[in-house]
Write a structure and sequence with these properties.
By secondary structure, the protein is an alpha/beta fold. The protein contains 15 helices and 17 strands. Strands 1, 2, 5, 6, 7, 8 and 9 form a seven-stranded parallel β-sheet that branches. A four-stranded parallel β-sheet has the order 11-10-16-17. A two-stranded antiparallel ribbon has the order 3-4. The chain has two domains: about 200 residues, Rossmann fold, CATH 3.40.50; about 200 residues, Rossmann fold.
Length: about 475
């Protein structure tokens, strides 16, 4: 051992020196850190409470970073990055006009860097809070064909995104935007909807764009209208290259009235209907044989005294088409007995009795709007010829008049994209009416000028445009020459 110590004396001395140096450095570092904290707190005046607040802020920042990462993860899952949507919350007008607004929003959404949420549908209306998904009425191929012009998301995926963000404690920011006719004189108001409680609204009050439907704004160029809508969606300028609505994740659109505004030619092409609807229309039209379609929307007649003369003129015109069957599209109720109608004509029906059958498929044509003249006109039609109308099997009631033929379709229809048959609603009936009329040999509509009812409508225009493309015969108009306004 002594021999070993003598041989390695130098090495052991060096090891002892290194050990002492390390101990010294460790002690100096320990006291310097303590001295630093003491001096720092003394110089900056930190109290124990302030130190606790510093720690709390640090933890809060960590939590915020965690929430931010969670938001980014969810957004990437649904959008591939930060999500910005236009959601069609409500459209006042019915299906034909409503889908026009959806088309224009779709082709405008890319101009404001947003994705269109495909609205739900039911009862001939479109909107986020309706009961059926978009493809219940329409063919999803439309979105795929226009992928280069706009992005879209199904409502169920949009709702899943909102709920997932809510559960992650990073609720979605949103804002309601509403369009009105200038004449309605509305002011911003608090708006609640089916997403209320799931989001964090920028304001519970809606932003408003007023369109002068019949005046100067209507006469503006389509370019000027598109600029106005894009600016409305972006919101007021903040003066730094940003606009007020750009950071809002969801813009909910309420459309009470609006002009056409998109310059894209594709926005004027109707959205194709679900293949099952088209197939049923083809089958039903074929079962009619050669037929004439008559569209009579009675609701907008300027004078109900015209009703019976309009019916008389229509019958006189149809006498020249005796080799055809007659298919009637009307907002007059389809299901009634002759006794019910004759009682209504005489004014002896109670409100309770009328409510059992006097219900139009048009939401704006109320039971109280029907007059004796409406009943007399329909009565005159089936007293002089046979008319076919469309209705579901579930609507069977009493026996209709002899020459008022109900064409019954199944009340449920199996769609290829669902597991169980779905109930056919009034929106389907309206679409079927329209598609069947497009396939008719001849087409009649009420005289221009709203003499017999509404003659100029998007519904009628869509039928006429489709028949033009299909090279069908021109449209015929019925109504008395000596009209009463």
């Amino acid at each position: 051992m002594k021999k070993f110590l003598r041989k390695n004396r130098m090495f052991l001395s060096m090891c002892a020196i290194v050990f002492l140096l390390l101990c010294t450095v460790r002690t100096m570092y320990k006291f310097s850190i303590r001295d630093y904290h003491v001096k720092t707190n003394k110089v900056l005046g930190y109290s124990p409470l302030e130190r606790a607040m510093q720690v709390a802020n640090y933890l809060t920042n960590l939590e915020m970073q965690k929430l931010q990462k969670e938001q980014e993860r969810i957004d990437f899952k649904y959008c591939g990055g930060p999500c910005r949507f236009i959601n069609v919350l409500y459209i006042r007008e019915q299906e034909t006009r409503a889908q026009l607004h959806v088309r224009h929003l779709a082709f405008t959404s890319a101009k404001v860097n947003r994705t269109l949420v495909l609205p739900n549908v039911s009862g001939s209306h479109l909107g986020a809070c309706k009961s059926h998904d978009f493809e219940y009425y329409y063919d999803m191929e439309w979105t795929r064909q226009n992928k280069e012009y706009f992005n879209s998301i199904r409502m169920k995926d949009f709702v899943a995104w909102i709920r997932e963000r809510k559960e992650a404690n990073v609720p979605v920011s949103d804002q309601v935007l509403s369009t009105f006719d200038l004449d309605t004189h509305v002011d911003p108001s608090a708006v609640t909807h089916c997403f209320s409680g799931l989001t964090k609204p920028k304001s519970t009050f809606n932003q408003i764009l007023k369109w002068n439907i019949t005046g100067q704004t209507c006469e503006l160029s389509i370019q000027a209208r598109e600029i106005a809508m894009v600016q409305f969606l972006k919101g007021p300028s903040l003066g730094n290259g940003m606009n007020a609505n750009e950071d809002i994740e969801v813009l909910h659109m309420e459309i009470y009235k609006a002009n056409q505004w998109s310059q894209m030619a594709q926005s004027d092409i109707p959205i194709p209907y679900h293949p099952a609807v088209i197939k049923l229309a083809d089958t039903t039209a074929k079962s009619l044989g050669p037929f004439v379609a008559i569209h009579w929307r009675m609701e907008a007649s300027k004078n109900t005294n015209n009703m019976l003369p309009c019916a008389q003129h229509l019958i006189s015109l149809l006498k020249r088409k005796k080799k055809f069957n007659f298919f009637l599209l009307t907002d007059y109720p389809h299901m009634f007995t002759q006794e019910q109608q004759e009682a209504a004509m005489k004014g002896v029906s109670s409100t309770s009795e009328l409510s059992q059958w006097l219900q139009s498929n048009s939401d704006s044509f109320l039971m109280t709007d029907f007059t004796r003249e409406h009943h007399e006109a329909i009565h005159y039609l089936y007293q002089h010829d046979t008319f076919h109308v469309l209705e579901t099997e579930m609507e069977r009631g009493g026996t209709p008049p002899d020459h008022w033929q109900i064409m019954q379709i199944p009340d449920r229809l199996k769609l290829a994209d669902v597991d169980r048959p779905r109930m056919i609603d009034s929106g389907w009936l309206g679409i079927l009416d329209k598609l069947i009329a497009m396939r008719s040999v001849h087409f009649f509509a009420g005289q221009k000028g709203d003499v017999c009812g509404r003659s100029k409508s998007t519904f009628t225009a869509q039928i006429i445009d489709a028949r033009t493309i299909m090279r069908k015969s021109r449209t015929n108009y019925f109504g008395p020459k000596n009209k009463t306004l």
